[in-house]
C-alpha cells in the first residue's frame, strides 16, 4: 500500500511540474490581458492521465506554489495577485477542470481512449474553463458576459487543438505504458 501511495504522490508532483514546464513555452498576451499559454494542455493531461482525484490534486499543488509566489505561470508570473487579475477566473477553474476531465475518463471505460480523453478535455478543459474565465474577465474588466465571451472566443481554435493533443497523448501513453494511465485503473 505504501508504494502505491508514494507512486501517486510522485505522479501528482510530476504533473504539477509538467504544468510549470509548459509555462516555459512563450506566451502570447492578448490586448485584454489574458495570455495564450500551453499550460492548459497540462491541466487536460492531469485529468486524462491521473484521473479526477489525483489530477485535481496536481493542479491544486501547482496553484499553491503559484499562490506562495513562485513564478510558475507563463511569462514568469506568480503570487496571490494573479488570482484577482483578468486571468483569475481561468486559474480558479483549473482544478475543477482536471476533476471533471478525470471523472469523465474514469466513467467512460468503453470506446476509444483518444476520443474519450479528447471529448473530456473539451468539456472540462474548454467549457468549464471558459465559464469561470469569462465570468472572471467580466468582473475584472467590468464588461458584459457577451463582450467577454466574444473576446475569449479567440482562444477556442488553440484550445480545441490542445484537447485533440491531450486525447492522442493519453491514448499513446496508455498503449506504451498502460499502468501509467491512472484514470483507466
UniProtKB/TrEMBL annotation:
Keywords: Cell membrane, Membrane, Transmembrane, Transmembrane helix, Transport. GO terms for cellular component: plasma membrane. It holds the Pfam family BioY. Coiled coil: none annotated. The chain crosses the membrane at residues 9-26, 32-51, 58-76, 82-105, 112-140, 152-174. It is found in: Cell membrane. The keyword Magnesium does not apply. Belongs to the BioY family. This is Biotin transporter. The gene is bioY.
Amino acid at each position: 500500500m505504501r508504494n502505491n501511495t508514494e507512486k501517486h504522490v510522485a505522479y501528482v508532483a510530476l504533473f504539477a511540474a509538467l504544468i510549470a514546464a509548459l509555462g516555459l513555452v512563450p506566451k502570447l498576451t492578448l490586448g485584454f490581458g489574458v495570455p495564450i499559454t500551453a499550460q492548459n494542455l497540462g491541466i487536460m493531461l492531469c485529468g486524462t492521465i491521473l484521473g479526477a482525484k489525483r489530477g485535481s490534486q496536481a493542479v491544486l499543488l501547482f496553484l499553491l506554489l503559484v499562490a506562495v509566489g513562485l513564478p510558475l505561470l507563463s511569462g514568469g508570473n506568480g503570487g496571490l495577485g494573479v488570482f484577482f487579475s483578468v486571468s483569475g477566473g481561468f486559474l480558479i477553474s483549473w482544478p475543477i477542470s482536471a476533476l471533471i476531465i478525470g471523472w469523465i475518463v474514469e466513467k467512460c471505460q468503453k470506446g476509444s481512449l483518444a476520443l474519450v480523453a479528447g471529448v473530456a478535455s473539451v468539456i472540462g478543459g474548454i467549457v468549464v474553463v471558459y465559464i469561470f474565465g469569462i465570468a472572471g474577465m467580466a468582473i475584472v474588466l467590468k464588461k458584459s458576459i457577451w463582450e467577454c465571451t466574444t473576446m475569449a472566443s479567440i482562444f477556442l481554435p488553440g484550445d480545441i487543438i490542445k484537447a485533440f493533443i491531450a486525447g492522442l497523448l493519453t491514448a499513446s501513453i496508455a498503449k506504451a505504458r498502460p499502468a501509467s494511465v491512472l484514470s483507466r485503473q
